[in-house]
Structure formats: structure tokens, C-alpha cells
Amino acid sequence: MAGESSSDLTIIVHKNPSESHLSELGIKSWPKWGCSPGKYQLKFDAQETCYLLRGKVKVYRKNSSEVISEFGAGDLVILPEGLSCTWDVSVAVDKHYKFESTSSSS
Fold first, then answer.
1. Backbone angles phi, psi at 30, to 5 degrees
2. DSSP secondary-structure letter at 45?
3. Is 92 helix (H, G, I), strand (E, B) or coil?
């Protein structure tokens, strides 16, 4: 794994963040998205922060059987810009999400 150019594309998972932290982020005002169980090819053109209300996901590196992350209901997840991956959704996902604007200074 050392030396791979994609090694800096790390998914950060915060297990069971506090209600106060979620309130600070304004999670409940973010848009919602959901999907049924299945496999989804995804490419993140901007950093996404999401909070899973329900669901269970295994994330595989694109064109690989290598699991790079797992997360589920109650997790706050940061997905890096430039990540190409497959989401293997075993339990339907319902999440709040926000994309980071690269031009934002806040």
C-alpha cells in the first residue's frame, strides 16, 4: 500500500459523535439522501461529510476487492475529494450529507 498515490484518500469515520457535535455542524439542516441495498460505483468530486441515520456500508477501492472502510447508522463520515469507490450497501442507507466547496474560506 505504501507509495500508492491514492493512499491519502482516507475515509474518516467518527463512531457515535455527540449530539452537541452534530448540532454544531447543523446536521439536521443538511439535505437527505438514501439508497436501497446494492452495489454503487461512486466518485467524489468534492469532499463529502455525511451522518448516517440508518444503513450499513462496506466501501471497496475502485476495481478492487480491498475493503477500505465500513460504517453504519450513527456514524459521521468524511469522504475525501477524488475518491473513486464501490459502496456495498447491505442495509438501506438514509443519511444527511454536505459537500465542501473548494472555494469556501469558512
1. -75, 155
2. S
3. strand
pLDDT tens for each residue of 54-87: 999 999 999 899 999 999 999 999 999 999 999 9
Q: Strands 84-99 and 48-61: what pairing?
A: antiparallel
| Number of Cβ atoms within 10 Å of the Cβ of 69 | 19
Terminal CA-CA length for the chain: 33
CA distance 78 to 80: 6
CB 69 within 8 A of CB 56: no
Closest CA to 79 of 92, 55, 97, 62: 97
- Average pLDDT of the chain is 90
Q: What does pTM read for this prediction?
A: 0.87
